[in-house]
Write a structure and sequence with these properties.
This protein is an alpha+beta fold and about 90 residues long. Helices cover about 40% and strands about 15% of the residues. The termini are far apart.
């Protein structure tokens, strides 16, 4: 049997409510690039949320572009996750 190994994918988002209308894609990649994105996130204590389906959708967006309104709800859920994790680190 020939099993295809699925390459890891990663997308990073940035959101500054005072400057941005919506979160923006700041980096994306597959394989080694994805591993580097994840490594940098861990190094800087940036919370990581694994969601392969969402990564697949976000990977189609251009870097430095805001996410489309159709993704607002799911990204809001991720931001809520990030804020809750960040509060845990602050305590």
């Amino acid at each position: 049997m020939n099993k295809k190994t699925k390459r890891r994918a990663a997308v990073s988002l940035k959101y500054s409510p005072s400057k941005d209308r919506a979160p923006k894609v700041t980096a994306k990649g597959l394989g080694i690039v994805a591993e580097k994105i994840l490594e940098l996130a861990k190094k800087h204590n940036i919370p990581i949320k694994e969601d392969p389906d969402l990564v697949q959708v976000l990977a189609k967006l251009d870097i430095d572009k805001e996410i489309p309104p159709s993704l607002y709800k799911v990204i809001a859920e991720i931001l809520a996750f990030v804020y809750s994790v960040s509060k845990k680190y602050q305590q």
